[in-house]
From TrEMBL:
Keyword presence, Iron: yes
Pfam families: RPE65
Protein name listed in UniProt: Carotenoid oxygenase
Chain sites annotated for binding Fe cation: 181, 236, 304, 484
Superkingdom of source: Bacteria
Keywords: Iron, Metal-binding, Oxidoreductase
InterPro entries the record matches: Carotenoid_Oase
Reported cofactor(s): Fe(2+)
Family: Belongs to the carotenoid oxygenase family.
Note on cofactor: Binds 1 Fe(2+) ion per subunit.
Biological process terms in GO annotation: carotene catabolic process
Gene Ontology molecular functions: carotenoid dioxygenase activity; metal ion binding
Lineage: Bacteria, Bacillati, Cyanobacteriota, Cyanophyceae, Oscillatoriophycideae
Length: 493
């Protein structure tokens, strides 16, 4: 009888009870100097980290069906010679203030949160609120809270006071949208080699219009152009290289009728076509932007990309987090009752685009479940080596993110710091050191939910070696799981 060697069974690194606590609302807005610190804040870490994410997971007694429907709450961590000053504040959108005045839920959520009253309470009400909860960036003197289905909101970068909904000095029309995932080109060919910010907005339909905007860092428009692609577009993220804007058009369709009839949320009307290919759309950045290239690949579903670069004139490399299928929203089941074992994990894949032969090759780079990739901003759109990303504790299977992974794309070496079993991680933010000479000369900032103490910690790592934190800043309260953030250095703070 032949005996086969048994592989060790990886035990769960978390409990659902601990994980759920990170989805409790945080109604309090506070500001204070962070005094409970382990280690020392690096002397050259000076500037402000901004974070955005849903802060309220119910609306005056009505629980949300999905956390992505929660009102946006901005957090700022300002590093000075005196220490780190923390603030958190809700984006006071028109809809947020209306519901506060009424003390009840007035708006449906895109991801399935319905007003009380069942179908009769929701039928034909297609108004959704601008929750401004996905990202936050500094553009000129404005701090912009972004949500990709509406215009941005302008906040004071210092106090986080909400100023107004913002059309970017008339560049955007009232019906336009401005994505929550802009890209920063460190050396834009359209800004004399200086940095520029690129973003997009989508008008979906039977054919979808992709509007592209490029600004200098003061918010002045450098160029604007559009592309129409057949089919419905569900695109959260995109990529840039010096010559291309790149979109992965996920294979999805949309039937709005159940939403209009009050039966489902808009997000629940989305259907992922598992057996259909993804369209990869390459739009030239140089005018007249006409020679658009469209390729196809079996890419699964993609929320986030790590980076893209041009290996040569006719070869592009793209690294993305791919899911075998999109987990459909279940209106009959709470998002807090998720069974991670049943969900497809997000994994890091590399796509090689051969523009000569119109072919795409796909390669798995790492089998670990990962999300929220971040790289050195100097390498955006260019060849790079190091990737920092939220990761699971165990090397296989789906699970909540509980660690920070540093992945070397040249050697495939990985370094993992895990906060398991009680800590839960999100998106790391890369802050170059003031005297950086190497690609990983950086401070990596990670906001961690500590379920044991029901509070959040801002953890600082040295990008050269993430085996131990450099400093851990303990907040006085917890911050619900967030989405995206950005860094404003001392020069542009």
């Amino acid at each position: 009888m032949v005996q086969t060697e048994k592989k060790p069974v990886e035990t769960k690194s978390y409990s659902l009870e601990d994980w759920r606590k990170g989805y409790e609302s945080q109604p309090q807005e506070k500001e204070y100097w962070i005094e409970d610190i382990e280690g020392e804040i690096p002397a050259d870490l000076r500037g402000t980290l901004y974070r955005n994410g849903p802060g309220l997971l119910e609306v005056y007694g009505t629980p949300l069906n999905h956390p992505f429907d929660g009102d946006g709450m901005i957090c700022s961590f300002k590093f000075t010679d005196e220490g780190c000053y923390f603030r958190n504040s809700y984006v006071k959108t028109k809809e947020y203030l209306e519901e506060k005045q009424a003390q009840k839920m007035l708006y449906r959520g895109v991801f399935g949160s319905q007003k009380p009253g069942g179908i009769l309470g929701n039928i034909f009400d297609i108004k959704v609120k601008n929750i401004a909860n996905t990202n936050v960036i500094k553009l000129g003197k404005k701090l912009l809270a972004l949500w990709e289905a509406a215009l941005p909101y302008y906040l004071d970068p210092e106090t986080l006071e909400t100023k107004k909904i913002d059309n970017l000095d008339g560049i955007l029309k009232d019906s336009d949208v401005f994505s929550a995932h802009p890209r920063l080109d460190p050396h834009s060919p359209f800004n004399n080699g200086k940095p520029s910010l690129i973003n997009f907005g989508i008008k979906p339909g039977l054919s979808s219009t992709i509007n592209i905007y490029e600004f200098d860092l003061e918010g002045n428009l450098l160029q604007q152009y559009s592309h129409i692609t057949p089919g419905f577009c569900f695109i959260h993220d995109f990529l840039i290289t010096p010559n291309y804007i790149i979109f992965f058009q996920n294979p999805t369709s949309y039937n709005p009728l159940p939403f209009v009839l009050g039966m489902k949320g808009a997000g629940e009307c989305l259907d992922f076509k598992e057996n259909e290919p993804t369209k990869i759309i390459l739009i030239p950045r140089h005018a007249p932007h006409k020679n658009v290239i469209t390729l196809e690949a079996n890419a699964g579903f993609i929320f986030h990309h790590a980076n893209a670069f041009e290996k040569d004139e006719k070869t592009l490399i793209i690294d993305s987090v791919c899911y075998a299928k999109l987990s459909q929203i279940n209106p009959d089941k709470s998002y807090k009752e998720v069974n991670f074992d049943e969900l497809a994990p997000g994994q890091l894949f590399r796509f090689k685009l051969d523009l000569n032969n119109q072919k795409v090759e796909k390669e798995l780079l790492n089998q670990r479940c990962v999300e929220f990739p971040f790289i050195n901003p100097e390498n955006v759109g260019r060849d790079y080596r190091y990737l920092f990303i939220g990761a699971t504790h165990n090397s296989t299977k789906n699970a909540p993110l509980q660690g920070l992974l540093k992945f070397d794309l040249h050697t495939n070496e990985e370094q993992l710091y895990s906060f398991a079993p009680k800590g839960f991680a999100g998106e790391p933010v890369f802050v170059p050191k003031s005297n950086a000479t190497a690609e990983d000369d950086a401070w990596i900032l990670d906001l961690i939910y500590d379920s044991e103490n029901h509070r959040s910690d801002l953890v600082i790592f040295d990008g050269k070696d993430i085996s131990q934190p450099v400093a851990t800043l303990h907040l006085k309260q917890h911050i619900p799981y967030g989405l995206h953030g950005s860094w404003a250095g001392i020069m542009n703070n």
